[in-house]
Amino acid sequence: MTSHKPFPKQQSTPILSHVPASAMALPFLSTRSASTTALFTSSGIPRLPVPPLEETLDKYLQVVRPLLSPDQFSKTQKIVEGFRTGAGPDLQKALQERAKVRDSWLHQWWLECAYLGFRLPVVVHSSPGVSTFKQEFSTQNQLVSFCSKVVRSALEFHLDVLEDRLPPDLMGSVALDMSQYSNILASTRIPEKDIDSQRRPSREQSRHILVIHQGRFFKLPVFNREGVLATREAISSQIEAILRQSDTPCKDKVGILTSLHRDKLVTARQELINTPTNVTTLEQIETAIFTLCIDNPTPLVSTSEISHLSDPTETTASRITLHGYGSSVHSANRWFDSGVQFLVGKDGYFGMNYEHSNADAPPVIKLFDKTIAASQEPSDVCACKDPLLADPEELLWEISAVSQQHIAVAREEMDSLVADTDVQCFLFKEFGKDLPKSYRLSPDSFFQVALQLAYYKMHTKTPATYESGSTRKFYQGRTETIRSATMASLEFVQAFTQNVMSNEKLAHLLRQAVEAHRSYTIEAVNGQGVDRHLLGLKLISKEKGVLLPEIFSDPTYSHSLHITLSTSQVPSQHQLTLCFGPVVPDGYGVCYNPRENEFRICVSTFRSCPTTSTAGMIKCIEESLMQMQHTLYLGQPAKL
């Protein structure tokens, strides 16, 4: 077996901070009105502003300074000043002109650069996995009943979106852009040369879901001949029929093809569509509202593999949802290009995997929260056939010798990727977000400073850090990078690890680091961050055919985009864990769900990297959280 190489040297996308999870940091309201810097769309949501060039360049120097030596920083300062007085103003003017004629100057660029033009497999590298507590199924009827509740609640959510019944999401009192909700369901990613496309079928075309069991694909109609949504009982009857029909596994593991490198998948798809049967099958797959994957029980992993894990069950669930544990377990029981896949194991594991180009985490988590709530309703669902509902239909494949070779390659590469990806979850129970709140500190900023301390303990340097900040207060807003590594955080972690300051002084530095993160978060979610603006200036220079300015060829710029610490906060009303892979070979992926009295945390690395360690990072995060709590407690001013 060839060794897995997570990232080739040449990237096809100009930005690495696509952040698989992309859940949002805590939103803050701007102190200045967005209407002073952005025009409004017809929906009443303001357009994303183009930040002032001077401010962006000043902030850029601030965010790269903790990453650089004094000599490197001095060189970058000169390059930035050259851009400020040289090509910068003309490119800024061109970007402002683009913003005048588009509802979002960034949206299409970001979609193509961060997602559709990203050529590595969507598995691990882009599509997040989401899991929740394990279920208990003592009979197949309980499994079927659970699945029907999940399916019906997701379909109700779909209709709420189509019929505009969802209440608006708010950031304080400000209504957020809701366009991502229309992209989550009834959406499929289509592999294309260089840049993929997205297929969104019409409501008339999309009247069924896709069910995959034992690697076999089924069309399950969910609207009857009168256009009425199927009941839970009718859905249960359909699922029972599918389980009966698929008691033996499929010989050809076609689903594994969607785990391929995107360029290889283009070739594999072209081979498939040479056969009319496969064209028909792909049409049904690509017009499905979503996918339900019913997995066989996950084989028990060896005791030696899980004995060191702090949360073996949650770790297993995250691995199932992120990659499926390999071609011989669940990875071929998937269609990774489906917008949303609900994953239900016969042994009780429950989660989802979603294709990230459609939406960021908050809208998807809202859907998942709804299905979790529905699935926990106590009454079982009895199967009852609806005579007006068409029977489920197995979707067939004709697999050529060439396609068999493509499948063999996909299996080998997927198994190598799974073996290389080390994902572990743990539950930090000592305290949750209420602790920093009691000290009047932002919980998210507090946790981000803990990550800076944990990384510094392991590597004695500051990482280029990405945290996803929502820009949904703007039309078609997606994310902006929150740069968690600051001079304030560096000063704190250095002072802490040197152990030469009093607790009172350390507590002061900790508060400064937390405030620096909070301040940048406010700017980022109000469209005043650094990363997206610089990306726009770089892309507009290419569009204009001008020589690439030195600021973008400066090693500092590429260093700032080599995200060794990719992070996301995923708040949820349920016990939910989201996971994603690192975005660079020597990086970490860290996702966390802050709850009142606990943090649910997932960490990932690539085992092929000799300098990173998932277990080591987990230990350092736990230590850092406890030590920062201790610092705040001991660093309080003495009472007279």
From TrEMBL:
Molecular functions (GO terms): carnitine O-acetyltransferase activity
Keywords recorded for this protein, A-Z: Acyltransferase, Transferase
Residues bound to CoA: K433, K437, S438, Y439, R440, L441, S442, P443, D444, S470, R518, Q569
PROSITE patterns in UniProt: ACYLTRANSF_C_1
Binding positions ((R)-carnitine): Y466, S468, T479
Every Choline/carnitine acyltransferase domain range: 48-623
Annotated catalytic residues: H356
BP-aspect Gene Ontology terms: carnitine metabolic process, CoA-linked
Record-linked Gene3D superfamilies: Chloramphenicol acetyltransferase-like domain (3.30.559.10), Choline/Carnitine o-acyltransferase, domain 2 (3.30.559.70)
Source taxon at top rank: Eukaryota
InterPro entries documented for this protein: Carn_acyl_trans (IPR000542), CAT-like_dom_sf (IPR023213), Cho/carn_acyl_trans (IPR039551), Cho/carn_acyl_trans_2 (IPR042231)
GO CC term, one of those recorded: peroxisome
PANTHER family in alphabetical order: CARNITINE O-ACETYL-TRANSFERASE, ISOFORM A-RELATED, CARNITINE O-ACYLTRANSFERASE
Family (UniProt): Belongs to the carnitine/choline acetyltransferase family.
Protein name in the entry: Carnitine O-acetyltransferase
Species per Swiss-Prot/TrEMBL record: Oopsacas minuta
